[in-house]
Each structure stands twice: as structure tokens, then as C-alpha cells.
């Protein structure tokens, strides 16, 4: 008898590569949660080699309907509860190479899709933003539920962790009829991909098991998604959600006057090239600066290695290419490091060094962020690589020797304090 379990994916975590045993092949794990009724949802755990897991992870996302063929059913381990969403069912689906997982299409998925917008907790089991801000000290460190509207989706940023690895981070502002500007931080790439579909004022979020924390630098309480978190978008059969949606339609987002822009929050200092160099000589790192300048070198039509890099999909470290496409990640903490890498484990990004100049001098080898470059080129890296050289030259002269106002980030290299990374992370409307 063939066992098939179908359901809509209500939560999913990014894949994780486990520590490799030199005597065994590398393994990776991925958790997700599916639902097939109003009351019941169940966690699934997959164990596969990293390359197979990367392909599986890319095959479906949160809100998709999937079928699991030949999964094993086993009791959920007690020590796994902090790492997966809470469910009433104390069982889990176990999937390995013998299990087939497929994304479903067609009219048959509608009976599962209807459960995606059903809240996973009771209608009154949540905190308002005002309650969290008032009782933040008591709630700090707790996992709780929040009902709120989307105020603003911030820009995706890349953060360097203490071990030198790079991690993506999404900052979202939530609001309701009484309080605005409450931060929700998401680190997991699967949750980030889902959250980037949300729109301001259009979507109400019932957030389950988000952790309350306090930002000691900027002095505010905020929520952070955990491995237990589930986000129900525009929950149905919840009067409180319907009332909140109606209420926020009468609120002007412009009047809230809160911006996720780090330059606005940190009041970046406006400098010229000479002053910027002096700040660097004085070891003033981890700061934001504003600078009016011209783009004095912008070489995008002379060699692929000048403006494109390959990054490991797991740790976002730069992939090394040796001996005719023998690709590997040199990051010693990345478990894909010495294994063969392919298109499922590699992300291509713009990685261009430019020169900027003003009346006080020139700053060479300033990195132009992938985000700014994509906006200028209005395409992906893969699309850009297909452009003929003459088209690249036309794009080059659209920006070369033009005036700009840039947001500059100065950081020490995470692995070599003697090196400095100077990066253009934002372009502003020029005021000269």
C-alpha cells in the first residue's frame, strides 16, 4: 500500500548542513510543516545529501501544496521541540532518499489552500503591539503571538556574524490601530522569501511564537522569528483580524514617519573624500557616511571576473574556482566547503569595485553593492552576462562621470583587521 500525505506548507526552514564525519558522506537536514485540516498540522524532517537537499528546497516554498510519498511516521523527539513549530500531533514525518516530495498543481490543491489562512492558535491568544511595548521588560525572552498589520518591508541586508559568516536579515515594521513602528526581524531565508510577498496595509499577520528582544543600541523592544515561528497571512474566521484590516485602511503610512533606512536611524555623517580617508586612518569603522561625488571608474565591459562573483548558497562566502570549474567554498566553517558545488549550491552576485572622486581626491576600489548594481542594470546577474559588450558599454556611460549621492559603509574585514571594506550600499537623490 502506497502511503501519501498531502498538505499546504505553513512553515519551512532553510536547509542546514551538518558537521561532516570524514568517514561518512555529508548530510543536510530541512524541516517544514504541512496542514490538511482546520485543527491538525504536522512537522516533517528531511535528511538528504547537500546537493539533493538544495534541489528539493528549491522545488517548493511556504504556501505551496505538496505530496509526500512513502514518508516514515515516528514519534517527535522531545529535544526537537525548540527547533520546530509546536503541533498538537506528537508525531513527525521522516523523509530520506526513499521518500518522494512533490509540489502539487491544479484544482485539487484548493481544498488544502483554504487551510493556509487559518490561524494556528485561538483567536484571542495574542498580544497587541502596545502591550509588548508597555510590558516589554516582563515579556523579554518569551515566545508569544502577535496580531498586526504590515507597515513597511525593509531592504534585505547581509550581516557579518561573529564567526565571519554572512547571514541575510530582513527588518519589517508592524503597526495596528493604536501603535506603529514595531520591528520584526527575520533571519531564515525561507521565511524571508515568504515575508517579501507581504505588502503594507494589504496584509494582516498572525505571528506565532516570535521571540521578544531588546535592542540596547537603538533602545526599543522588537520581535524576532524563531525556528518555531509560523506566520498566517490575512487570517480568516478571525474577527479581530478583520477589524484590524478595516482600521488600518484609514491610517496614512506617510503620517507615521518611520523609516527602516539605516542612514536615517543612525544619522550618517556627510563627508568628502578627504574626510572619509581620515576617518578610516583614525580606525573609525562600522559607521555610515554620506558623500557627494562622481563615479570616476565603472568598468563593466572588460572581463567577467571584474564584476561577478559566485557565492555559496549556504554561508554566502565567495566560491573559489580552480582547475577548470572545480568549485569549492573556502570557508572552513561551511560544511559544503570541500564538496563539489553546482548551480543548486551557488548564487551569482554583482561584485564590482569602482572609484569615486570629488574636489578633494579619489577613493579607489570601493565596492558597489549587489543591490545598487541590480537597480542600475535593471536585470539579474544571469541576464546581464548575456548582454553583448556594446550594450554593456552603453550602460557604462550612463553612469560613468555622473554625479551621485551615496550611502557609504565602512567595515573592518571579519577575518583580517588590517583590511578595510568600503561599500556603496545606497544611492540617494543628489542635492548638488
UniProtKB/TrEMBL annotation:
- Signal peptide (residue range): none
Q: Which domain of life is it from?
A: Eukaryota
Q: A Gene Ontology molecular-function term?
A: single-stranded DNA binding
Task: Note the InterPro entries from the entry.
Answer: MEIOB, NA-bd_OB-fold, OB_MEIOB_N
- Keyword entries, A-Z: DNA-binding, Meiosis
Specify the MEIOB-like N-terminal domain's residue ranges.
4-119
Which Pfam families does UniProt cross-reference here? Answer: OB_MEIOB_N (PF24903)
State the PANTHER family in the record. Answer: CELL DIVISION CONTROL PROTEIN 24 OB DOMAIN-CONTAINING PROTEIN-RELATED (PTHR21166:SF2)
Record-stated family = Belongs to the MEIOB family.
In Swiss-Prot or TrEMBL terms, this protein is called MEIOB-like N-terminal domain-containing protein
What species is given as this protein's source?
Answer: Didymodactylos carnosus
Amino acid at each position: 500500500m502506497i502511503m501519501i500525505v498531502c498538505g499546504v506548507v505553513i512553515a519551512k526552514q532553510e536547509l542546514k548542513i551538518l558537521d561532516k564525519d570524514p568517514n561518512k558522506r555529508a548530510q543536510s537536514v530541512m524541516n517544514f510543516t504541512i496542514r490538511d485540516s482546520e485543527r491538525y498540522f504536522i512537522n516533517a524532517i528531511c535528511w538528504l545529501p547537500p546537493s539533493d537537499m538544495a534541489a528539493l528546497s528549491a522545488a517548493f516554498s511556504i504556501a505551496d501544496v505538496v505530496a509526500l510519498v512513502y514518508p516514515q511516521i515516528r514519534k517527535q523527539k522531545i529535544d526537537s521541540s525548540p527547533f520546530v513549530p509546536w503541533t498538537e500531533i506528537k508525531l513527525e514525518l521522516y523523509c530520506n532518499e526513499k521518500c518522494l516530495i512533490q509540489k502539487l498543481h491544479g484544482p485539487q490543491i484548493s481544498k488544502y489552500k483554504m487551510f493556509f489562512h487559518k490561524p494556528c492558535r485561538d483567536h484571542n491568544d495574542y498580544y497587541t503591539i502596545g502591550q509588548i511595548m508597555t510590558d516589554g521588560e516582563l515579556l523579554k525572552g518569551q515566545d508569544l503571538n502577535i496580531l498586526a498589520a504590515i507597515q513597511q518591508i525593509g531592504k534585505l541586508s547581509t550581516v557579518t556574524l561573529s564567526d565571519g559568516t554572512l547571514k541575510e536579515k530582513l527588518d519589517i515594521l508592524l503597526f495596528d490601530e493604536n501603535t506603529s513602528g514595531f520591528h520584526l526581524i527575520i533571519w531564515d531565508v525561507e521565511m524571508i522569501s515568504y515575508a517579501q510577498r507581504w505588502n503594507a496595509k494589504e496584509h494582516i499577520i498572525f505571528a506565532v511564537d516570535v521571540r521578544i528582544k531588546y535592542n540596547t543600541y537603538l533602545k526599543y523592544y522588537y520581535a524576532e522569528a524563531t525556528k518555531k515561528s509560523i506566520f498566517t497571512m490575512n487570517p480568516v474566521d478571525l474577527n479581530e483580524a478583520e477589524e484590524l484590516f478595516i482600521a488600518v485602511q484609514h491610517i496614512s503610512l506617510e503620517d507615521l514617519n518611520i523609516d527602516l533606512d539605516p542612514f536615517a536611524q543612525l544619522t550618517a555623517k556627510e563627508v568628502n573624500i578627504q574626510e572619509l580617508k581620515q576617518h578610516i586612518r583614525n580606525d573609525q569603522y562600522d559607521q555610515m557616511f554620506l558623500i557627494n561625488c562622481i563615479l570616476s571608474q565603472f568598468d563593466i565591459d572588460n572581463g567577467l571576473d571584474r564584476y561577478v562573483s559566485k557565492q555559496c548558497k549556504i554561508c554566502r562566502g565567495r566560491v573559489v574556482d580552480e582547475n577548470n570549474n572545480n568549485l569549492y567554498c573556502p570557508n572552513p566553517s561551511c560544511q559544503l566547503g570541500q564538496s563539489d558545488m553546482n548551480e543548486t549550491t551557488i548564487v551569482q552576485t554583482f561584485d564590482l569595485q569602482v572609484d569615486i572622486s570629488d574636489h578633494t581626491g579619489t577613493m579607489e576600489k570601493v565596492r558597489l553593492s549587489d543591490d545598487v548594481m541590480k537597480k542600475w542594470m535593471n536585470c539579474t546577474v544571469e541576464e546581464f552576462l548575456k548582454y553583448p559588450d556594446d550594450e554593456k558599454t552603453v550602460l557604462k556611460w550612463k553612469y560613468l562621470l555622473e554625479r551621485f549621492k551615496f550611502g557609504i559603509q565602512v567595515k573592518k574585514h571579519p577575518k583580517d583587521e588590517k583590511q578595510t571594506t568600503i561599500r556603496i550600499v545606497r544611492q540617494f537623490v543628489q542635492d548638488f
